[in-house]
Write a structure and sequence with these properties.
Specifically methylates guanosine-37 in various tRNAs. By secondary structure, the chain is of the alpha/beta class. The chain has nine helices and seven strands; from the N terminus they run αββαβαβαβααββααα. A hairpin with a 2-residue loop joins β6 (165-166) and β7. The longest helix has 19 residues, at 180-198. The two termini are 43 Å apart. Bound molecules: adenine.
């Protein structure tokens, strides 16, 4: 990310919604209409902040609201969002934000997983990191954008590097063999087994070859 920033490929800026409150205590939340627990972020500071941001960019930025109610964030979504010139990541707090702010400015609601955090800041950082990887100039020559774990729908095989033996634990022999056909078969087998064990939900049987099915049946 530092590399991408220094090269001018990506940049970030933070805006504090409190700076857009018209209240002398910089208040940005209020009790929910209809009652119930918790506070709701008010519409005006959010929309005022957004209007300010909009003046600083060339065309309308895509606005993403981080919320556990949103569409689940995926690698595919990161690739799509990396094509946008500007993104605004709106972080909620408390019970949420006034629905009118969502209706007025939000393009997409995104969740980073089925758990509830105290605010959208950490999810925003997750998106920034994951999206930035897909922007040219962010990853270095030794980094890999080769996303085995997701691009072929399987979890990635295990990795090893030197030494070939550590405290009696050996690197699988096949990886030292130099036989790329065998290495690829080993890796495919490990990926298939791991996906079946940990993430059967993403294993798309219809996309597997006869050989793959045989491996899984073993
Ligand atoms: N805000 C609170 N929890 C969240 C989550 N899981 N994803 C996105 N935003 C959130």
């Amino acid at each position: 990310m530092k590399r991408g920033t220094e090269k001018g490929e990506i940049s970030y800026k933070c805006w504090n919604i409190r700076d857009y409150s018209k209240n002398k205590h910089r208040k940005v939340d209020d009790y929910p209409y209809g009652g119930g627990a918790g506070m709701v972020m008010t519409v005006d500071p959010i929309v005022s902040c957004y209007n300010h941001i909009k003046e600083a960019v060339f065309k309308k930025p895509k606005v993403i609201y981080l919320t556990p109610k949103g569409e689940k964030f995926t690698n595919e979504m990161a690739v799509e969002l990396s094509k946008e010139d500007d993104l605004v990541l709106l972080c909620g707090h408390y019970e949420g934000i006034d629905q009118r702010a969502i209706d007025m400015i939000v393009d997409k609601e995104v969740s980073i997983g089925d758990y509830v955090l105290t605010g959208g800041e950490l999810p925003a950082l997750v998106l920034i990191d994951s999206i930035s990887r897909h922007v040219k100039g962010v990853l270095g020559d030794d980094d890999s954008l080769d996303e085995e774990s997701f691009s072929d729908g399987l979890l990635e095989y295990p990795h090893y590097t030197r030494p070939a033996e550590y405290e009696g634990l050996k690197v699988p022999e096949v990886l030292l063999s130099g036989n790329h056909k065998h290495i690829n078969e080993y890796r495919k087998t490990e990926s298939l087994k791991l996906t079946l064990e940990r993430r059967p939900d993403i294993l798309d049987i219809s996309k597997l070859s006869k050989e793959d099915i045989k491996i899984l049946e073993k």
